[in-house]
Amino acid sequence: MKVELYGDDDIFLIFVNIKKFYKMKKIVLIVFMTLSIFQVRSQNQEADPANTGRKFFVGLSYSYMSLDLKLTDLSLHSVWAGQDMGTYNLSSDEIDEINAFTERSSTVNAVCAEAGMPLFNKPGSKWYVDGTLMLGVAQTYRSTYNKNSGKEEYNYNSGFSKPYFGLGFNVAYQFNPKWGVVVRPLFSATMGSESEITDNINAVPENFTQTIEDDYSTYYERISLLGSYNSGNFSLYAGPGFYWVNSNHDYIIEQTNMTNGDIIKDEINTKGIARSFIDGNIAVEWIFTKPLTFYAHAGFGNDVFINTGLHYNF
Amino acid sequence: MKKYQYIKTMRHIILIMAIAIPFLSFGQSTVNPDDTPWHDGNNRTWYQSGLGTDFCNYNGVIHVFNYQDNGIRNGGHTYMYTINKEHNLGSSKKAMADFKLGPSNDHNNKIVWGFPAEGTAYDEGRPLGRFFAFQFNGRLWHYQHIRSASQGDHDPQPKNESYECYAEVPLDTMQKCFTYYSTHSPVLTQLKLGGFQLDSMMYFVSRYSDGNLQWMIQEYSYSSSDNKFHYVKNIMLTNIPTSYTMLGGLVKRIDANGKEYMILNMFNESTYVKVIGKLTPGIGSDNKRTFTWTQLFDSNAIFSTVTTATTIAEGSMKACRTSDPNSTSPDRLVLFGLNKDKCSDGYYRISFREFRFENDVMIAGTYGTLDPAKSSAPSKGGDHFQLHATFDLIPKHYGDALEGTNGYQQYLWVLYPDGSKHFNGLPLQSDVWRMTNDQIITSDDLWNNDLYPGIEKLWSLIGIIDGAPPASINWEVWNEHYFAGTDPTELKFTVSGERESEVTSTYEDQWSVGESMELDVKHVLSLSEEFKYSQTFKSTVSNSVSVKRTLSKTFGLLEENQDSAVMLWSVPTIKRYTYATFPWWDTQLTHPIPNSKQYLFRPFGIAVVDRNVPIEDYPYLIEAPNASNLQDWSMSSRADMEAEISNHGLQPIMDLTWIDTQVGDDGSYEITNNSSDSYEQSTEWEINASVGVAVPKIFQVSASAGYKVSYSTETKVTTSYGTQIDASLANLRLAAWGPSTNSLEVKVYWFKNSKNPNWWFYSEFGDQRPWYIAYFAGLTNGKINLLSPVNKISAENTNLFFSWETDNADLKDFTLVIATGSPIQNENIVFRQPVGSEKGFALSGFKPEPGKTYYWSVIGVTDEKEIVYSPAYTFTVNESGPENTSQGLAAYVYPNPGKSSDIRIAVNGNNGGPYTFKLMSASGVVFVNQEINNEEGLPMNISFPDTGLPTGVYFAIIQIGREQVTRKVIVR
Description:
heterodimer; A: mainly beta; 2 helices; 17 strands; elongated; B: mainly beta; Immunoglobulin-like; twelve-stranded mixed β-sheet
């Protein structure tokens, strides 16, 4: 990573080599590389971190989530040449059996523009609350691996083309200028429809053409309970995080008989959640110049959560 | 390793595999079923606690036997169903249908054996081994082996016994299955898993469930007296590894030499191994049956996908494909296996491997995955993985050579339970059975027994005739006076309008076994797969055909044929159709499946052929047909015939006479509607075809000479009679112009099978039952002409008066007979009244049924005891109200007009008592006033021979009590 500093309150450009994920679009990479900004914000040790007299902040952020999911529901519906073959909803025992031999993972990378403001920031108060709204684009990579057969049955990479939305809050209480506690609830969502799917179990039958599409939505909720330590312009946070994921997929396979035009349609509806719900969190904030703040927050456990970005306070 | 790195590594591996797999998996494909998958709309539950469900195709329809727990303390029973009985395709396929059997008060689809606690056990007895169905001698059987669930209240365990149960499905659905079971104590550890018939024996593929776990073939004989299978012996198969625990499927085939063998598939659902092998029957040095097992393909050679349950089915499999990579190898067999691993979507996929046979060598072909509808995809059937294969035969019409269904389209069906434990099936288009492009061969010269010695064994004898009505003729004189070809006498079956005399013969279809002309070999009953189509065709579509021919022959008396009788034969004309089975892709019919070729021999017509035979032979026995005294034609000379006539009271159908200087009689015998005669027989013809020996074209094969032809068929011969039979002496005029006698009487008798199946002459003809038109002939004894009632009268009431006349004054001892059928004979006579020399009778003592047609005639006897018969007339009494059913006083005058000495007045005399009779003139003068005492109410004939009445009109008044009738009498 290369950093060039242009002084306080200025916007610094950072050229970051981001790890190349599968099928990342070049244009997005270039945009990200050229537009990444972080602000170094000097911090008054005595003052509350937000007691800058600023009312709003904007910024850019990058989020990464890597999730190990399990099914809670799965239903199968087939229509064969116009005849409805019915819907089969798997039982809980069958779901548990599938979860035992299947690894379903989902990785989300999102780049967002953020805007926020302090919601409670009275001078002299030990409390501080702010809220942040995030809007951006996300890339989702999904994979399903069958341990019994040793085969990756599904995978796809959506590219940075799907909408991403997030809403986060900071609720901080300073015991003293150095120590405090922060609660950070976060809600984010991404959704989309993907047809560039690698399906290794539903091969195209002979004499048929096949289209596949997965309409999906992923909702991520997190609440992190962090202790904070402030030292100059740096703030460090650590503590547990609790998170929940709801991943919904409506996977449709449509096969057309090239001889007679008959259409066979199979619909697989799944609902998944994360296998775990708790992780360990660390976070850092660095006011490296007055209007600019760099922050990073990561949660590690069975799953990985990373959120980092720059805010410009004004 | 972090998750990201792990995924990346896996993706690299997958990439490598994706490059390599096309080279490793040649012939692999994913295919869809050809038709909409079937799901049981009635959501019946596949039995979960063992292998208690089996499927079998019988007569083209999929039959299902499914065990069911009937609830706590209700034991369990097996229930029968059919799938797609109407052979529908697409969404028209219906739910599994109950296959109900039994009388109307017990008509259901449950099979009951009656073993202990069958319907009362707390839990149903569990299946041991597996349920399976098999066919024996063309009949469907079901087998199940049940562990006893019979447990006394104080018993800690159920009884240590088991029951082997057999059920034969009846042909008539109003009958229940024939069932029996054998009790084994302790529980039998030899588990039967499948069965096949070989020759007349039944063989079961079995294995031990304990000890050495060995496989064996159990030989059973069949007893038709008790309709049961009886154990003979075990034939151990020691070279089948005991690691295989279940029989997946069994297919019976024929090799290029016509020898039967079996392809077996076994598997172990726990260790995921499977095998295909060949079971070859043989005969040991001790002349006893042996079997040799040869492993053909093990798990890895079938496919690398790990499967649990497997099964096999014979036939090609289209599965929505448009071509086949080995199109010149049509003989196929498919193995289906349920994948061991569920996919991440929660169901088991089905893998398949096609095998082809080339020169009796089994070669592995394409393999891949069968893609079912996901919502009804396979799941585990309770405790076991279950996958079954059978087939459906869809009736089809191909081409115009034969009407109606003349072929079949086979669909292989793969059957399995889904996640809801309901029945599901995948139909896969398979082979087609139909006529080949070979020419249809016709033989219409089977009448030529000079060319084909012995071919008359395929003929059916319709009737025998004594020839034309006999007459003694001086032919030299006859030929001087008549044109050549003028017959003195004739017998003719006539055609009038739409009513024809016809001969109808119904022939059983005959199918060859392969291209062999030994059609008497009944291999097809043991149902090698190659011949399942023709067997189904025979059972469900047609196994016989009726062909007819008009019978309109004239038999005229000629010098050349006077010493001949005539035998009328029905000779079939037969076509040979060539059938074979073709794979789904062979629309041009260029590659039939080897050993599937069969011939259908079907008569398409008959020729009625007459053959002259010496009339001196039995049963005719006429040594001198042209003798001037016609002695051989008399009753006394034909004693057997005369005795039969007498025993049965058979009357002639015609009595023709000729007297010198008069024109001889034309007689007609009118045949009632729907009159026919029929009988059944077996015909068989055998010959060794060799160079120089001619065989009909239909039996010629391309093989070199030196084969045996053996053709047999069951035939029903029916002669339907049209309007009438005519016999004529009309060409007899003057005795000086040819006849050697100056009179002739010919009585024509007709001996029909329908009147008596045991006529004396049948001993000569084996199982053939021809009719016989025979004659008695001699000098005339006069005729009896019937006067009243007129022929075919429809009378208003039952007050009938019968009168007749004769031209032979010596004829006396008349007897009036009334019968219900024709010809009149003892068996159908309902009224007989001797009337002495009277020539009239007022009917009493018999009340004809209104609406019914009766036949009446009069028999007269001469002083020489010669019998003369009148022709037979018919009458019917109108169906009317009660006022006409009572029979009051009736009187009839005959002859009227007549001489006073001849006139008779017949009174029915139904009422007993004193009668008063008066005869008076028109002016009131009383000539006769007589009281007659008739207490018994007998019929009376009143005459007044001594009155000498002058010509005029008179009135006869007959009175009894208050009843009185008056009749006009004209004396001339």
